[in-house]
Amino acid sequence: MPKRILMAKTGLDGHWRGPTIVARALRDAGFEVIMIGMATTAEIVAAAIDEDVDLVGLNVGGHIDVALRAVDAVQSAAPDMPIFAGGTIPPHACKQLQAKGLEVFPPGSMLTDIVDSANRLTGLSAAQ
Amino acid sequence: MRPKDPQDTVQACSDIPLKTYYTAEDIPSSHAQRTNIAPGEAPYHRGFHPSGYRSKPWRIFQLSGFGKPEDENERIKFLLKNGETGFIMEHDRNTADHCYNVDHPEVLARREDVGLTGAVMQSVRDTAICLDGLPMDTSFGHAGGAVVQHAPFALAAYWAVAKKRGYDLSKLAGTGQSDFNLTYLGCVTKQQIPTDAGLRFNGDIIEFCTEHLPRWVPVSIAGYNGADTGLTPDQELGSLFANAVEYLDEIQLRGRIPLEVAARGCGGVSFRASIKIFEEACKMRAARLMWSDLLKQRYNIKDERVANLRIHCVTAGSKMAYQQPMNNLVRGALMAVSAVLGGVQSLGVSGYDEALSIPSEHAHQMSVRIQQILMEETGLTDVTDPLGGSYYVETLTAQLVEKSWAFFEEIQTRGGYLACLDSGWLHAKAEENQHKEFMQTESGEANIVGVTMAHDDSSPFEIDGFIGTDDAFDVALERLKEVKRTRHEKGAKNALKDLERVCRSSDNIMPIMMDCLEAEATLGEVGDVYREVFGDWRTPIQC
Fold first, then answer.
1. 3-state DSSP call for residue B541?
2. In this complex, do B230 and A17 lie within 8 Å of one another by their Cβ atoms?
3. Minimum distance, in Å, between the CA of residue A80 and any CA atom of chain B
4. Which spans in B309-348 are helix H?
5. Is residue A104 part of a domain?
6. Is position A128 within any domain?
7. Which tens digit of pLDDT belongs to each residue from B118-129?
8. Measured between alpha carbons, how far is A103 from B387 in angstroms, rounded to an integer?
9. What CATH number does residue A69 fall under?
C-alpha cells in the first residue's frame, strides 16, 4: 500500500503552481496524494482523519496565524500525524512553523528535498 | 546558462531552436518585406508611434494595496509622490475575488488573511476612503476588479465615487481588468460564476463603457497571468488572442455597438516581461503585429487607432527569488529592459521582496526608481524599436508569430478559449511547462543565481518580508455593520432585487450595478445574487 499524503491550502488564494508541482513529484515518487484545495482548519482535520493519511502537507500563502491554527488543530486531533509546509512563507513565519516541529519549504526549495522529507516523515526512510 | 558544447541545441522558451548567429537569409521572406516598415505604421510590430518614447514615455504603473482602504490610499499617495504616473487599486483576495463580505464563514475562518494582499472594499464608502485625495480626473486609474465576477462591482464603485465628486464620466481615463487568465486559469477562486456568465459580464462592461466612458479601457486581457502560470511566450500570445476573439465575437453577435469601438476597448492588454530579454522583446513586437493582422483578416478593421495594440507589462513575479532577494533588483531592471525594448506603453516592476510578501515601501520605491533610471539615464528611450532590423530579432519575431497562430488555431479546434478553460486543457499545458521548467532547474540544466548556484549561507543581507496592518478584518467588520445600519435599507434591497431581475434577463448589468453601489448595497449581497442566479464554475483542476 502506498503511503498517503493530504495536501491542502490554508488560504483563499488559488495560485496552484506550487502545490501542483509538489503533488506531481510526490506521486512520481510513489505516494498517493489527496488534494483538497482551499480548505478551512475544520476541513483539513476532517480530511486528514477520513482519508487516513500518513502525512499532511500545507500550502501556506497567507497570514501565518491561519496556518498555525491548522497545525494546532491537526496536532490536537492526531498527535502523531507528521506535517510539512511550503509556499510563500517569509523567514519569521518559517521559524514559527519549525518551532511546532514542521519541515518547511519556502520558494527555491528542490523537489528532491521535499520527496526526501516525505519519505522520512512517513517512515519510508530513516530520520536524519 | 552556457551549453556544454557551443554547438549543443539551445532553445527559446517557446521551443524554438536558436542558432549561434543569424544572417539576413534567416528572416522568413514573408516577414523580410515588413522589416522596412516604420514604427507607427501597420502592422505596428515596430512600435505604437513613430517617435516612440520621445513623444510619450511609458506609464509607471505599480500594483499596490493592502490592509484598510486608508492604508492602500497612503501607499498609492507614496507611489505617486515617488514618480508613479497612474495608480492601481488592489482588492482583498478573500472578499473581493469571491464577492464575500467579511462575515462570510469562509472569510471568518481566515480572518488574519483579510487585507493581506489588498484593501477590503465592501461598499462605495470603502472605495471613497481608498480614493480620498487621489487625482481621479487627471490620472489614469485602475479600479481593480481583476477577477471577472468582481469587476462590475469594483468598476461601479470607482465610477460612483467619481460621479459623487462631480467628475464627468465621459472624460474619465482608466482601466478595468476582468481577466479570464487570472480567474479561470492562474489563480482560481474557491467559488465563482461560470465562464459563460463571465463572458456576458465582460460584454456588458464593454457596451457600457462605449456609451458612457469612451476613454476607459473596459476589460484588459492579461497574458501575464497565463505566462506566470506556465504558458510559454507563444502560448501566452495565442491564448490572449483566442480570448480577444471570444469578446469580439460576443459583441458582434449582440450587434448593439460598432465592432471597431469594441475592438479599441479590447486593445489594451498586458503581458509578462520575463527574463529572456530578446524573446520577450520579440513577444511585444509579435503581439502588435498579430493584433493588426487579426483585426484586418477576421473582422475587416483597419483603423490605426484600433489596430494599434497598447501594451502594459509586469515583470515576472515567479522569476523573483526568495534567496538573496537583492538580486531581484537586477532581475527587475533587466525584465523591464525587455519590455522597453519591445516598446510597451505601461510598466510595473515586481518588488525585490516578491517571493516573500507584497511590496514593502522600500521595494515599491525601488520598482519606481528602476523605471526612472531606465527612462532618464540609459538612452533606451532615444530611438524607436532599437532592435528593428536585427537578423536575430526579426527572425525570432516572425517565428513567434507563426508558433503563436498555431497555438491560437489549436485552441479554436478545441472549441475556443472558454472551452479550453472549462475542460482544463490550458491548465494541463501550463502544468506541463511548469514541470519541465522545474526539472531543468532540479537537474542542473538551468541555473538560478543564489538558489542553485552562488549560495551564501551566511545571509547577511536577509529581509523578512513586509507585514501590513493587523486591524483590516476588525475595521471591515465594523464598517460593514455601520453601512447596513445607516444606509437607506429599502433602497438597497430594491436595487439588489433589480440586480437579480437583470441578471436573469439579457439586459446590461452595469446600469443596475451603478444603482446598487449608489444605494450602498454591499459586495457580499451582490455576490449572493450571482451565486443564486449563475451557480458555481466547475473548476477543472484540483490544487
1. coil
2. yes
3. 25
4. 327-341
5. yes
6. no
7. 999 999 999 999
8. 48
9. 3.40.50.280
ipTM: 0.96
B360-405: pLDDT as tens digits: 999 999 999 999 999 999 999 999 999 999 999 999 999 999 999 9
Q: How many CA atoms lie within 13 A of B440 on its CB side?
A: 14
User: Domain of A52?
Assistant: 4-121
- Within a domain: residue A126? no
* Interface list for chain A against chain B, based on CB atoms closer than 8 Å: 9-17, 19-21, 24, 35-38, 40-42, 59, 62-63, 65-66, 88, 90-93, 106-108, 110-112
State whether residue B97 sits within 8 Å of chain A by CB.
yes
The answer, for B112 touching chain A at a CB cutoff of 8 Å, is yes
For residue B525, the distance in angstroms to the closest alpha carbon of chain A comes to: 19
Residue A127 forms part of a structural domain = no
Q: Which residues of A touch B357 (CB under 8 A)?
A: 88, 90
Q: To the nearest whole angstrom, how far is the Cα of A94 from the nearest Cα of chain B?
A: 10
The string of DSSP codes covering A35-82 is EEEE--HHHHHHHHHHTT-SEEEEEE-S-HHHHHHHHHHHHHHSTT--
Residues of B with Cβ-Cβ distance to A107 under 8 angstroms: 321-322, 355
Q: Identify the structural domains of chain B with CATH numbers, from first to last.
A: 10-449+463-472 (3.20.20.240)
In B, which residues are within 8 Å of A66 by CB distance? 110, 112-113
**Whole-angstrom Cα Rg for chain A:** 13
DSSP states of B147-186: SGGGHHHHHHHHHHHHHHTT--GGG--EE----HIIIIII
Please list the residues that pair with A35 across neighbouring strands.
Answer: A7
| CA B511 – CA B156 distance, rounded (Å) | 9
